[in-house]
């Protein structure tokens, strides 16, 4: 069973224990739109219409998308920041999925390389119930309980090309499509298992779809 597809590049020009100290606060940059597909292709410039479509209003911090995937594929549309942080992220909107899809705060760590998801809602596949995952327990945050797990991707696409890297998932048990995610809580919990919160790449509120049908409209603030 597919856990997630690693996706590469950015589209600002654009183209899945011991607590640690939180990173110093940083000025909030304006969100940038991100869109990716199989192997890291840029769906802004090279969109595969039989996977779905999306539109955006970056100034308003919103995007909309739909998908109807009659063929295998994977794409992500999101809005966020070119550099991740232990920020609190507020999002609101609608999300409906029938099949394999996540609504999540999604990002990457540069070193040791890792991909992370705080899954707020999903279709019919919870990544922490997939094959090959290691359960890390549960986390209470932002009025809900998250199932936490890790998974290792071996020789898969990443932000540096094909590589082997760890994935970190927090999956909210009380699904929602609007709310606030306190990223420091997840970073601190994952840090017990080797996550490095101090060397972050991009960070977005994203919808990923890799099977089935669905639609979403999201505003990120």
Automatic annotation (TrEMBL):
It comes from the Eukaryota. This is Endo-1,4-beta-xylanase. Pfam families: Glyco_hydro_11. One of its GO terms (biological process) is xylan catabolic process. Pathway: Glycan degradation; xylan degradation. It catalyses: Endohydrolysis of (1->4)-beta-D-xylosidic linkages in xylans. Residues 1-17 form the signal peptide. GO terms for molecular function: endo-1,4-beta-xylanase activity. Belongs to the glycosyl hydrolase 11 (cellulase G) family. Its EC number is 3.2.1.8. It comes from Cyphellophora attinorum. The active site is at 115 (nucleophile), 208 (proton donor). Keywords: Carbohydrate metabolism, Glycosidase, Hydrolase, Polysaccharide degradation, Signal, Xylan degradation. Coiled coil: none annotated.
């Amino acid at each position: 069973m597919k856990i997630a597809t690693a996706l590469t590049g950015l589209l600002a020009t654009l183209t899945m224990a011991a607590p640690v100290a939180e990173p110093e606060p940083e000025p909030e940059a304006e969100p940038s739109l991100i869109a990716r597909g199989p192997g890291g292709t840029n769906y802004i410039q090279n969109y595969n219409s039989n996977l779905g479509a999306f539109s955006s209003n970056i100034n308003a911090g919103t995007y909309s998308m739909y998908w109807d995937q009659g063929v295998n594929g994977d794409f992500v549309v999101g809005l966020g920041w070119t550099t991740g942080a232990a920020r609190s992220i507020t999002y609101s909107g609608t999300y409906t999925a029938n099949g394999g899809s996540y609504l999540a705060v999604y990002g990457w760590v540069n070193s040791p390389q890792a991909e992370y998801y705080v899954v707020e809602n999903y279709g019919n596949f919870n990544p922490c119930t997939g094959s090959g995952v290691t359960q890390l327990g549960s986390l209470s945050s932002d009025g809900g309980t998250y199932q936490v797990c890790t998974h290792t991707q071996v020789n898969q696409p990443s932000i540096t090309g094909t590589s082997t890297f760890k994935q970190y998932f927090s999956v909210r048990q009380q699904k929602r499509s609007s709310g606030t995610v306190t990223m420091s809580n997840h970073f601190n919990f994952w840090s017990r298992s080797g996550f490095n919160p101090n060397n972050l790449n991009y960070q977005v509120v994203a919808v990923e779809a890799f099977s089935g049908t669905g639609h979403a409209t999201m505003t990120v603030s």
